[in-house]
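The protein record filed here.
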Amino acid sequence: MLFTKLQQIIYYLQKKILTVLGDLKSYSWPCWVIYDAEGYKLKGDDFDQITLKLQPGDVLLRRFDAYLDNGFIPGFWNHAGICTGAKGDVNPEITHAVAEGVIKETLFDFCHADHIVILRPNFTYDKKIVKNRLDSAIGRPYDFDFDFTNGDRLSCTELIAYAFNTYDHGIVQTPSWLGRIIVKPDSLLSANFTKILEIKKPPFDT
């Protein structure tokens, strides 16, 4: 009982720390840190490109350059989501897991980022089953423990693996610095997906 209570305390502290770090941006010049900063490199013409290419079932990876939690996520890409909107939608819905839990938001809001890539499944899957899985995940809390054996809580890449579970997705789990076996966002690039579009922006002028 005491051990369980201690685990709960550790998880709570881990959740609070990672949530705050996810909203902090640091800049080398001038040297400062900003909480919940706005300002992203992806602009309107980038959004137009993404909208033209994106289809339901596509996986999106995005990156924010300056956020402090980048240090806890190995690789270039630091977040993943999946398009659950209807084909032809001007601003389709994206389902993804954030600090507040699994949510749906518009593509426009998801594209508040610095870089993005679209990956399309190379494997056959039942679109209805995948959509039902994603709909059932809405509202589940974020998995700050990154425990891929527990589907009650879901991290962003865990949600992708959960959605395509039992299909030939080729998603590989690897050890993290936390000692957990996780799916790094970068590992989706070498899974059974085709890269449809990649937009990487140069650094901001300083």
User: Anything to note?
Assistant: DSSP finds five helices and ten strands in the chain.
